[in-house]
Batch of 3 targets.
Target 1
Amino acid sequence: MDFDLTPRAREHAEKMEGFFADHILPRNREWRAALDSGAHDAPFMPDLQARARAAGLWNLGLPHLPAHGLGNLDFAPLAEIMGRLVWAPQVFNCHAPDLPNMITLDAVATPAQRQRWLEPMLEGRLRSGFAMTEPAVASADARNIALRIDRTARGYLLNGRKWYVSGGAHPACAFLIVIGAMSDAGPRAGHTAVIVPMDTAGLRICRRLDFLAWSEPAAPIAEIDFTDVEVPAENLLRAEGEGFAVAQTRLGPARVHHAMRAIGLAEVVVSLMRARAAERASFGRVLQDYDTVQGWIAHSRAEIEQARLIVQRCAWALDRDGHRAAQRDVSIVKLLVPEMLQRIADRAIQLFGAMGGSADTPLGAIHSWARAFRVFDGPDEVHLRQIFRQEPAATEALADNPYLHPGAAPLGGGGSIGTG
Ligand SMILES: Cc1cc2nc3c(=O)[nH]c(=O)nc-3n(C[C@H](O)[C@H](O)[C@H](O)COP(=O)(O)OP(=O)(O)OC[C@H]3O[C@@H](n4cnc5c(N)ncnc54)[C@H](O)[C@@H]3O)c2cc1C
């Protein structure tokens, strides 16, 4: 087993580290100020995107487009670097929800759909959203879809409501991939996925949503109403009843990419803990001299290393076997990585005291994002179910299990326990 990066990944990671240090981190405060003043993107974004393209750091998360992308394993260290700041992935056209939408369109779009929607996205000219979750039904169960789709002479008519559509409230969002249920389909029929341009009559953004202290600044979240929204037949993705397959094409990579970025965030949190613990003193000692604080930092380091390994293993399995075969690995990553980040962010908030919950640090937002990550793209419990279902069934009655010693004497022949 070789834990080294491949030469291609190493070359890109070195380049990206340099780019991050030279062009991204120094502009983080400028980015914050632009958003605080009400802008949706920092004015310098197009310039940074042009620089990233020129540096060959563009569209790296699209494994099936050889001119651009890397495999998941090679992409992991790059996603980790860009994941350190919420707005950085957009510089490289590797941000959610557009990256998984591009992966989906690359897999399922017709040539005409590719030309109209995917090609401009690859250029960074179009933004998009993915609308599956609904306020009216428990969307952890992907079979629950209330939005109705009816056939018309021209195409399809949509009626219903979606919410928590990441990116849907961004003014540059040009279209949504919407999952709905055909009105005339039986209860066992699959759902249907269609492309809905944001400027279609009857589509209305009802409000912008947050999650705790997380406002999804780079991809603002929307609740969206669809009343008699009609789209042409050529906007159907794959075939009627195949919307679930379209959603799965998207959700696998989306989950793993988020996990890769989460490790970058966890590294930021630990570096902040380290700096604070070295500077802040109480009861005559700097905080890092206390065992408790050392334990927080050491545990966090151990948990990051563990998380990185399972993410890399999952990325390797995705590259080798595809999403269907790697489903259990994806669920394990989706379960463990958000928990890891939430724990580490919680320790950091404690270490920073009041400042940890203020907007002067990113800790509150990171904690809220980690908490949200335990819900979006399938809540913890759904992934636990997936993992449990792939556990091998018991092959024999417990009484016949050779690991048991029925009727054995207590260990040590029944003598007293202990040394005293
Ligand atoms: C920040 C954020 C961004 C999001 N972005 C998007 C997006 O872009 N597009 C989109 O479509 N959706 C998005 N979502 C929605 C997200 O995917 C859903 O919230 C998630 O799938 C859960 O659905 P629900 O909210 O309806 O919860 P419900 O289905 O109502 O589930 C609630 C809870 O019930 C429990 N539960 C459910 N099933 C089981 C079970 N089998 N066993 C045990 N317990 C169970 C779990 O604890 C679960 O958290 C986003 C959510 C957040 C918070």
Target 2
Amino acid sequence: MPIVLPEGKRLAVCTSFDLDAWSIMLRMRAVGLLGPGNYGPINFSRGEFGITTAIPRIIKLLDKYGVPATFFTPGVIADTYPQMVKELHDHGHEIAHHGYFHECPASLNEKEEIDSFRKGVEAIKRITNASPVGYRVPFEIPQANELSPRTVKILMDLGFSYISQHMGPYDFKVSKVRDGDVYHMDKPPEFGKEVDLLNIPVNELIEDDLAYFLGVSTFYPKLDNPSKVFEIWKMDFDYAYENEPGGFFALVLHPESTGRAHRMVLLEQTLQYIKQKKDVWFCRMDELAKRWKN
Ligand SMILES: [Zn+2]
């Protein structure tokens, strides 16, 4: 079940951002993962940086290289910064779903989950005049990072075409999402049915937050050498380009992490490196999903 790339193209490249800003921290506080003394104006400003400073930098860089991107956007961020989200949309980027308040489906009851999806869809629709077709699961680290048993059906009922969160079964290839797996501890799992929802997997090993942010604690950024991060991204891209023709390579980024100066330099180096290959197709994830032949 391949994706059919445009003629002459060997590999798709998707640049994706999770526009979490401050929503992830406030959500973690709401579910008791952070105490009130751990979150106020100082830490809120980390998220504000991701919007106020990082987004204009990112828009400028993506414009410079003609790279369309996908922004997974919590509804509350769209409601707070509608002009910024409209600007991303006007620059040709995809606005995809990332919960309303960065809620993880696995921590919600049925009504809360449906409300979260609907509110998130409506917030995006008010800006783009279209329903989002892509979804990425917001993580409530370290408590919840999973789908609920209802999530796939909700996504399909709301007309989504893809989810970009699974970490397999492939890395540079898409597959159909399976719904209803049952995992046992004393016998083999029972596999659920494949449904018409595309799995565009992510690779945490090349995610910016893993390299930069999730260090000593939630609040103290890990300071990794950008040349080391570039080496990892480059080797993964090179492997995909050489060994997985017809597939895709995706970066998972966060404006509040990647928007810092030296990391913007790294992202630019990465785009320049990939651009040297003339048969690479830079695309949004919804464009990739449309190339899927069932
Ligand atoms: Zn997120």
Target 3
Amino acid sequence: MINHDIIKSQLSHTLQSTDFPGLGKEYKGKVRDNYSKDGRRIIIVTDKLSAFDKNITTIPFKGQVLNQLAKFWFENTSDIIGNHVIEYPDPNVVVAKECTPLPVEMIVRGYITGVTSTSAWTHYQKGVRNFCGNILPEGLKRDQKFEKPIVTPSTKAAHGDHDESVSGQELIERQLLTADEFNHLSNISLALYQRGVEITAKQGIILVDTKYEFGKTSSGEIVLIDEIHTPDSSRFWFADEYAERFHKEEPQKKIDKEYLREWLAQNNFTGEGEVPEIPDDIKIETARRYIEAYELITGQNFNAESGNILERITKNLNKYL
Ligand SMILES: Nc1ncnc2c1ncn2[C@@H]1O[C@H](COP(=O)(O)OP(=O)(O)OP(=O)(O)O)[C@@H](O)[C@H]1O
Ligand SMILES: [Mg+2]
């Protein structure tokens, strides 16, 4: 596990934002800077952390962790489906094929859980027994494992609108996907989830649920895009405590990205007003947890690349500029 002083010395070198007009048309998400040109998309993962829909701060090595976690999973699933990756020229950067995203997120759930309005458990508690075309039995308890993992698609709403959970049937009726495409994506999503479950199980981790995005390449091939099995797109629990906590009806122990969010809430920030000053120790602990998540999920050591990230990226992207 990484040394505290390495994280501390990186506090002044985190990656906040980039500006590379030469890389192409720019699109900035909450944490990733995307540049598109000539059929490729360069995605730079910054160290920004957002919570309560606000940009809060930067966390040392967070961008590297998220980028390299996705890299680990793209590499470990490429026999199931091709992906958008062309190369990783820098620890924080992926160069990808520019694809036409399919208008759907494929969510796979192995367990019934969650507290938000879109969660399976929330729907179930309200009496829903047909969830996105999946018939759920009576008597399920919170955090219970489904007999078989289920696929619950969600439409990718235009900016401002909310994503909507739908059944495959509805996707087909609305002509968002053909029946063949939906069946193909369902099978692939279940196979990807199964692979994720097998690999994390060796680490004592449960991949609870996750979402996948797909796109079409210029030659018409459907590939996996965006990110895969990162803490931003997935939920992870600790396997050794699962059964006991489930029977005692206690919350599961999770690999969480909520540490800073919880600190903010304790300091009376839930999205309104000014973001409180975040002490270095809190940032360092947040970084340590991201790195720990990387090591727990992959079973590999994290090689922190310290120093001035923007200078390094500029050098590593030289051939694209
Ligand atoms: N290879 C690709 N080709 C085309 N689009 C892609 C590719 N990979 C990812 N995308 C899409 O690019 C968009 C940008 O993603 P990004 O995560 O940076 O921002 P966002 O999803 O708009 O916001 P958020 O910060 O909430 O995730 C997403 O809609 C994603 O589906
Ligand atoms: Mg996104």
